[in-house]
Design brief:
single chain, 203 residues, 2 strands, elongated
């Protein structure tokens, strides 16, 4: 049901005042199936502004964890910061659930899964929202958006239970990981943390 009105409104954007349309849409319910396509179409400022202005009146925010996880994975540092500033409570360290009741991978760990450079998002998560740089992956956590692996080797690089972001980055699969590791160490990440297999990031 979420997709049909979204597609219809995309065609009406030129004939309507888009910020007003979004503010009206976000009054009661924020859907990831509405927000994420808008962001991918380039309506960053409009989406952020509508969420900021409606933050105090949105009744159903159950899709926000999935939205924030996607922003972290996709590298939208400015949007993550702006939309995150509208959220309350100790949300930054994750453990939130999706609409299906799934426990989502924490945002910092999600940011570490991006192939392209994502240090900007990590910096926002750590410095703006004071995330726990040693937060661990748990066996019952799921990735949002879902990660599809093209090989067993790639699958084996996924977080193992007890892993921190350093365990992921220390595999060195992408050139930007070295700088991210240095940044995280400077901000308190523990290189001696052992996962449930007893391995540190250096093993």
């Amino acid at each position: 049901d979420d997709f049909r009105p979204v597609n219809t409104e995309f065609y009406l954007l030129r004939s309507q005042h888009f910020p007003d349309l979004l503010r009206e849409k976000f009054k009661e319910y924020v859907s990831e199936h509405y927000v994420l396509p808008m962001i991918l179409l380039g309506y960053h400022q409009e989406v952020a502004q509508a969420l900021e202005q409606n933050a105090s009146i949105i009744e159903d925010k159950s899709s926000m964890p999935a939205i924030m996880a996607s922003l972290a994975r996709w590298g939208f540092s400015e949007l993550f910061g702006r939309i995150g500033s509208t959220m309350t409570g100790n949300w930054i360290n994750g453990g939130d659930t999706s609409l299906r009741g799934e426990k989502l991978t924490p945002y910092l760990l999600a940011a570490g899964q991006r192939d392209l450079p994502n240090l900007d998002v990590i910096q926002v998560i750590v410095e703006k929202f004071n995330a726990d740089v040693n937060i661990r992956f748990e066996a019952d956590m799921v990735d949002k958006p879902k990660v599809y692996y093209q090989s067993t080797m790639a699958l084996n690089r996924h977080y193992k239970p007890g892993d921190t972001i350093l365990h992921q980055l220390a595999q060195g699969t992408h050139w930007w990981h070295e700088g991210a590791i240095r940044y995280l160490l400077e901000h308190g990440a523990d290189p001696n943390t052992r996962n449930h297999q007893g391995k540190t990031p250096l093993c």
